[in-house]
Amino acid sequence: PVVAVVQDVRWGRTYEGFGETPELAVLLGPPAIRGLQGPDMSTPGRVLATAKHFVGDGGTRGGVDRGDTAGDEAALRAVHMAGYVAAIKAGAGSIMVSFNSWNGEGMHGHKRLLTDVLRGELGFTGLLVSDWNGVDELPGERDDNVEQAINAGIDMVMAPDTYREFIASLRKNVDAGRVPTSRIDD
User: Fold this and answer.
1) Catalytic residue among 65, 131, 175, 185
2) Is-above-0.85 flag for pTM?
3) 67-82 residue pLDDT tens
């Protein structure tokens, strides 16, 4: 389920979310997760639910897709994070990272929000997946972007067109000690 909270109807992905209030994401996201995953993931026909897109994609300035969500952390938590708190409590096995940035910092490289807040504070223990080619949207060179994204906490990178380059870059980063093997093991 997309638990994004739509704040501007000009955002081209409004149809993906449940609505414009955090209460709707909190109310409707968990049943979708439970419906997909069921009470036991070993039951045939069950799939891993992925709550998306962490965090703030529905609040970008001017509704710009892949834009910047500006504001203080209290607002980010109150409006845009509520659906993820509920998704984690419902047992979401995966969360997808958003293309957007928050106050200018790209979410795919935002270690504080992905690791410290999402995993640490909120207790998410599942798979953290990038969005489609999302790591490539960080500013800078590929090797730096891969290092930043993996060290920020992303577990699986969707790089459908550049997966060979991604793998080579990740190996290079590990060999250079820029991405610790403990992160790979995790």
Assistant:
1) 131
2) yes
3) 999 999 999 999 999 9
